[in-house]
Amino acid sequence: MAEKPFFITTPIYYINSVPHVGHAYTQIAADARARFERLRGKKVYFLTGTDENAIKVARVAQEQGRDPLEFCDELAASFRAVWDALNISYDDFNRTTEARHRIPVQRVVQKLWDDGHLELGTYSGWYSVPDETFFREEDTVEIDGAHYIKNPSEDQSKAPLEWIEETSHFFKLSTFQDALLATYDQNPEMLRPETRRNETLSFIRMGLRDTSISRVQDWGIPLPAGVPEHENHVVYVWFPDALLNYATAPGYLSENPETAQHFEQIWPPDLQLMSKDIFTKFHATMWPALLKSLDLELPRELFAHGFWTVNGRKISKRDPETIIEPIAFSRKISEISGADFPIAVDALRYYCLREVTFGVDGDFSPQGCVARYNSDLANGLGNLLQRTLVMLQKPDYFHGVVPASQGRDFGLQSDLPRLAQSVEQDYAALNFSGALNTIWEVIGRANKLIEDEKPWAKVKAGRVDEIADLLRELLSTCQWAAVTTSPAMPTAGAAIWRVLGRVESMTWQSALDTEFVAGHRCLTVQPLFPRADLAKMEDGAAKFTTKEKPMNSNPPTENSTLQAPAQPQAQEPKEANFITIDDFAKVELRTGKVVEAERVPKADKLLRLQVDLGSETRQILAGIAQHYSPDEMIGCIVVIVANLAPRTLRGYESQGMLLAASNDEGVLSLVTTSAEIAPGAPVR
Ligand code: MSP
Q: How far is the CA of 352 from the centre of ligand 1 (A)?
């Protein structure tokens, strides 16, 4: 049987707020772990999504005169757009208004009823719509005949509560108390960190009360018809609706056999991440009890991370200055540094993961983020890469060709496998800040080695051979850093990998096998992390918020010159435009290796390439000069259309065409092969 993929989840987010850095944090952490597992060769199923059945969503849609479902479509799309911009590599995005979720939820409720886990009762209490929570009488105060939350926390509503009294269906949570305690006793590693585990154990020991799973409402998943008193009732948005998304997405109770089989293969989740406020009661008590009632295996690990404040203030819609939208913020970093937008995104990701220990609270400071960008990325990693590659390329050094070893040992490269292991353990334990700490210790050591060895003095004295091994160790360190940082900073990691001339897929093993063969060529590089102007980073978070009507997304500003992602737009259904396999077979695609490259005089965009196809060398003119330098192209494996009729451009014959991908932001990337393959190989 195939190996079980690593199944990782984030909470599904309420769509009635714009995604801010707090939401982004869980996504970034989950993404780092997912990417790390993929690097280690694991198949990953990374699930995220949106929680759409909350009554407040329907109410706001109504206020705005909108159709609630259409409204949800738009908001869910804006969440996806932000995650895509942040390079979150989710494999599945579950929306609780989708049929693949709604139908199994109804089946679950029916099953719970049939199996005797539900009973009818009366539910009464004070309900806060903005908080989607009931309050006991003693937790409210009465003022002028209206009830309010007693001592509301900063993010709780101060609006009058609604009295709700209705027939409801109760899940017999109390019957699972002992079983849960026994499970946690036998599996101490299931709940992390330790503080949350202890909190959960005392919560359960205090006694569990049966919990209502239905509400009289007109927005949500209707109770199934086989349950008595189902009329007018919908499933409570938290339980089991939202929690069940973790099971419905991979295919629980699906009628499609393939999807149902997917569920069998995937279940249970290996890691479920969320913040501490929704851990104890919802994820560590109700969710596992529900799974037990359905005879489903429990997740292997539930981890609660801490809460972010912004400049010391709690993130809250009622305090707009605390809402930092990740795209607007990354755009600002890009603007004040000149870094590409995806690199600015990496800077945000790095800051979040490095700044605080995963599991404890943190304070987000825009200026703190820029300070880290300058010290760790521009001066640290960026500087190391730049110095190393310049040393390699310069004519009085090594002309771009990795020199042979002269047998000297600077003690850095030999340490890398051990340090890779330590970083690996940290990533596996969700100790992101620990992993990044170790990586930056290595980067610091490498930069110091350059300063101590003063290679420029040796070159000046004509003793270039003496620095051959230093350069080799620095290149190895850059490769090691590309691999180890890539879970946190995927764009930077891949960019470093590419300039080091690596064409094969990166794996974790590439941090252990860092040896460069003599004669290997690297590419030239522009500074990856240009220094940012700290003075231009205002510390008021409102600068990173789009001041639009609430519950809307974050379109990039018109005048932005940066590579910010476009917002998703409703797509017209397209007519299928298929070709047959015979049509495709007419196109002869082949691999080639670029052996010579030069600019075409008076043509800004053109490079003239000589491409080795194994049996012949072709001249190809490619419009890539604004994206690739001639030096960078030498040695590259490209994919060409080999049977294109020749044509003449600027007086040169072009005998084929290079394949490249480009996007609306003007990024162009050549199509290559993931492993070095003989020139001339057919591409099918
Ligand atoms: N919809 C529920 C979750 C259902 S999961 C079955 C919900 N949604 S939420 O949008 O309010 O928040 C979800 C998650 O966003 C939190 O658990 C946390 O992962 C993240 N965060 C939101 N604000 C945050 C901070 N200020 N700090 C850290 N994480 C934050 O609750």
A: 16
Q: Give 191-196 contacts, CB < 8 A, sequence gap 24+.
A: 191/284, 191/302, 192/301, 192/302, 192/303, 192/304, 192/359, 192/430, 193/303, 193/304, 193/359, 195/359, 196/276, 196/279, 196/280, 196/284, 196/304
Distance 19 CA to ligand 1 centre (A): 10
Atom 29 in ligand 1: residue holding the nearest Cα: 22
Q: What is the mean pLDDT of residues 128-136?
A: 83
**Any idea which residue has 């996806």 for tokens?**
80
Compute, in angstroms, the gap from residue 376 CA to the centroid of ligand 1: 29
Establish if 220 belongs to a structural domain.
Answer: no
Same domain, 518 and 427: yes
Rounded Cα distance, 676 and 6, in Å: 29
What CATH number does the domain containing 639 carry? 2.40.50.140
Q: What is the pLDDT of residues 403-435, one digit of tens each?
A: 999 999 999 999 999 999 999 999 999 999 999
Q: Give yes or no for residue 465 having a pLDDT over 50.
A: yes
For ligand 1, the distance from its centroid to the CA atom of residue 26, given in whole angstroms, is: 8
Pair (589, 539) in one structural domain: no
Per residue in 319-376, pLDDT (tens digit) is 999 999 999 999 999 999 999 999 999 999 999 999 999 999 999 999 999 999 999 9
| Sheet strand arrangement including 271-275 | 92-95, 44-51, 6-14, 271-275, 302-305, 191-192
Residue 380 shares a structural domain with residue 492: yes
**515 is a domain residue:** yes
Q: Which atom of ligand 1 is nearest to the CA of 306?
A: 28
Give the residue, out of 83, 101, 105, 278, with the most ligand 1 atoms within 8 A of its beta carbon, to mutate for a pocket test.
278
Does residue 365 lie within any of the structural domains? yes
Percent of the chain residues past pLDDT 90, beyond the cut? 74
Q: Which residues line ligand 1 (CB under 6 A)?
A: 11-14, 22-23, 25-26, 51, 242-243, 245, 274-275, 278, 307-308, 315
539 with 644, same domain? no
Residues 382 and 500 placed together within one structural domain of the fold = yes
* pLDDT (tens digit per residue) in 580-612: 677 787 888 999 999 999 998 888 889 999 999
Ligand 1 pocket test target in 18, 25, 75, 94 with most atoms within 8 Å of CB: 25
Ligand 1 pocket mutation, candidates 52, 271, 274, criterion most atoms within 8 A of CB: 274
Q: Ligand 1 atom closest to Cα of 26?
A: 19
Pull the structure tokens for residue 172: 């017999």
pLDDT of residue 36: 98
Q: Show the DSSP H helices in 49-151 as ranges.
A: 55-63, 68-85, 99-114
Strand partners, 303: 192, 273
DSSP alpha helices (H): ranges in 429-467? Answer: 432-453, 455-460
Query: Residue 255 falls within a domain, yes or no?
Result: no
**Among 544, 562, 589, where does a domain finish?**
544
pLDDT band for 241, please (50, 70, 90 cuts): very high
Of 499, 519, 544, which marks where a domain is finished?
544
From 275, 279, 316, 319, give the residue whose CB has the most ligand 1 atoms within 8 Å, as the site to mutate: 275
Q: By residue range, what is the domain housing residue 491?
A: 361-544
User: Is residue 377 domain-shared with residue 502, that is, in the same domain?
Assistant: yes
State pTM to two decimals.
0.80
Residue nearest to atom 12 of ligand 1 (CA): 13
Number of domains the chain is built from: 2
